[in-house]
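Support request from a user on the community tier.

User writes: "When I paste my structure tokens into the form, the page sometimes reloads and wipes my input. The last time it worked, I copied everything first. Here is what I submitted, just in case something in the input itself triggers the reload:"
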């Protein structure tokens, strides 16, 4: 008689067994500290700089980009697991803490950073810095790092999902309120764009999940390429518009260095606030790990398509701070997660449901470092979000 193969669950080395999702891109060497999808994004930016779409080609690219954004949010709505959301309601204190970090503390720090303009950051980069502080948290990278650090994986799954769901409404509203005319303000046209390109596709995905959910699960690897390709198209269109408009002449290497320094301070402050603040609120170690990784990160997958809707031709400078912060958070959190896994404190008990829950398709494109965990299939939370 053939002996059954033992089932493995998530542990310090990251999600394995049934909870492990297929990679949607080539595996990079473990010593390379750059996420493969970030390299693809940089290549797309370089292509837009060398061969920007203009004239009739720009109209075609803009139309395709609009359709890609709608497709991303449709897929996110169809993938969102209602079961996970209902299961996570019992841990409401943790989820409210993550939401407070994402949509309260981050925006307050972003508003404070507006004092850096125009001496440290240009007004355009300062606006992009604030927009970075408004987007929702990632899903899959939060799960991966929480698993590596031996934290509360089911809580990280639910917290990331709640953040992405709330971000569909809160991020555009906060951007319109805090960024003013640079994000379209609260005009009827701006709200109509948000509804038609973000909310309507998302709700359509939720309504059709019953019929398309099985198809998405069976073809999640192929659809992962669709997610990432859609986001690359959005990036190419946005940066092409910036090149044609000549706005990149406003950015110098010195300004980029200052932007990186400001983002390093932002990440350090949020990592400290989420860890020590969660301790003051009485959360145990496993919950503090989930709060730190879900509450300190921002979703590239969510931010890129939202920026294309909110900023239009000025989206390229608006998303530059987010792209840089995305890579920085992956590198720093990978180091922290590895240290947490060896810090000598008792490991958090992993619920049997964590592995199967982690196998749910994440927000389209939420990028995860190759050495830390499998790459996602965001969302808007999370496009590579995610």
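"...and here is what came back when it finally went through:"
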């Amino acid at each position: 008689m053939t002996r059954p193969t033992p089932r493995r669950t998530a542990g310090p080395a990251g999600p394995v067994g049934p909870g492990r999702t297929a990679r949607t891109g080539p595996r990079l060497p473990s010593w390379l500290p750059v996420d493969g999808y970030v390299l693809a994004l940089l290549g797309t930016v370089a292509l837009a700089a060398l061969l920007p779409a203009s004239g009739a080609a720009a109209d075609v690219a803009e139309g395709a980009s609009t359709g890609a954004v709608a497709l991303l949010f449709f897929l996110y709505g169809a993938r969102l697991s209602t079961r996970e959301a209902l299961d996570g309601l019992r841990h409401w204190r943790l989820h409210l803490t993550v939401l407070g970090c994402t949509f309260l503390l981050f925006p307050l720090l972003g508003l404070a950073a507006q004092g850096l303009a125009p001496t440290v950051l240009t007004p355009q980069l300062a606006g992009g810095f604030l927009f970075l502080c408004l987007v929702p948290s990632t899903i899959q990278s939060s799960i991966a790092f929480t698993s590596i650090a031996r934290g509360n994986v089911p809580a990280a799954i639910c917290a990331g999902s709640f953040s992405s769901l709330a971000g569909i409404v809160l991020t555009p509203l906060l951007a319109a309120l805090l960024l003013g005319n640079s994000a379209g303000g609260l005009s009827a046209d701006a709200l109509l764009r948000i509804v038609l390109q973000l909310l309507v596709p998302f709700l359509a995905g939720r309504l059709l999940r019953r019929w398309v959910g099985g198809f998405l699960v069976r073809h999640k690897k192929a659809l992962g390429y669709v997610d990432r390709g859609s986001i690359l198209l959005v990036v190419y269109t946005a940066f092409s518009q910036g090149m044609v408009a000549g706005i990149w002449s406003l950015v110098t290497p010195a300004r980029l260095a200052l932007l990186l320094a400001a983002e390093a301070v932002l990440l350090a402050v949020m990592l400290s606030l989420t860890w020590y603040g969660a301790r003051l609120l009485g959360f145990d170690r496993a919950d503090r790990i989930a709060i730190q990784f879900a509450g300190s990160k921002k979703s590239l997958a969510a931010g890129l398509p939202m920026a294309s809707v909110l900023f239009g031709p000025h989206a390229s400078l608006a998303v530059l701070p987010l792209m840089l912060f995305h890579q920085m958070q992956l590198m720093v959190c990978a180091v922290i997660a590895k240290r947490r896994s060896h810090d000598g404190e008792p490991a958090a008990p992993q619920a049997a449901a964590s592995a199967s829950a982690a196998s749910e398709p994440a927000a389209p494109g939420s990028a995860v470092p190759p050495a830390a965990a499998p790459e996602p299939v965001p969302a808007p939370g999370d496009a590579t979000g995610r």
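Agent notes: The reload is a front-end session timeout and is unrelated to the input. Confidence is low (pLDDT under 50) at residues 1-29, 346-386. Residues 145 and 337 are 6 Å apart (CA to CA). Escalated to web team.
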